[in-house]
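Table S2 (text version). Query chain:
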Amino acid sequence: MKIFKFIGKLIGIVLALFVVVIIIGVVVDDDDSKSNTTTKTVKTKKSKGPVYTLDNPNPISDFRYEFTEDQKAIVIKYYVGDSSTVVFPESIEGYPVRRIDDIPSSEYHGIYKNIIVPKSVKELGRGAFYNVKGNINIDLTNLQYIGEGAFSSSDLTGTVIISKNCIYDVDWSEHLKTFAVGWGDRNSHCFAYSKVTSVIIEEGVTILPDAMFYSCTELKSVKIPSSLKYIGDDAFSCCNSLTEVIFADGQKIKYENDHVFEGCDSLSLATRTKLIQSGYDGRFTVF
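Corresponding structure-token output:
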């Protein structure tokens, strides 16, 4: 009987050892398989979204719009999209886009990568591109109306060409008699604090509104036509990089006050003398 008990215990021990060996083998095999497996990280590409161009402008859902008063064209009242590229459409629902009233300033939207305005747009409302930072692509000679402060504090850069079409003109001699309130509001401060580098005022323009280029610190050159008779208050004040003002010898101009070129302390003595001879009796430096 004792021998049978001994044999039974021995068989039990052998079976237990066999089970242990099997378990160890499974664990080792699992560890080997893990050590031989190469882990690959798959990177997913972020979608860049649609590329907007004049042929493929932003969808009309990005804009709030309505008819012009004559109901023959469209006024874009506001841009409500979130893209950093804004390409205004030439037409909406079969009607040409004639006017842009507002695009959110970069204070609320952030910096714009690119803004493209088509040639169908003829008018810009008051403050339309105020404080808009980024590349602004627009043909200003195509405009027939520019509202007060339209590009004030914006990143608009390069050469600005002022045509007769975009200036709200008046009989300047009558204005001098009455100092009528309101005419300057149509165009005043249009480019103030912007990054324009040169200004060409085309022949036919007779009056330059108040503070039109006030504190354009990157402005270097201004060309004045023989037709210009009047320059408003602070038109070029604080343009401290302005080095040349080109106009005809002997040309006479009526200046609103003695602040028109105040702060333009980069002007040469020859240019200052010529401006004084044209009728300017103000300051060129800020005291």
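Notes on Table S2: The domain at 139-287 is CATH 3.80.10 (Leucine-rich repeat, LRR (right-handed beta-alpha superhelix)). The chain is about 20% helix and 20% strand.
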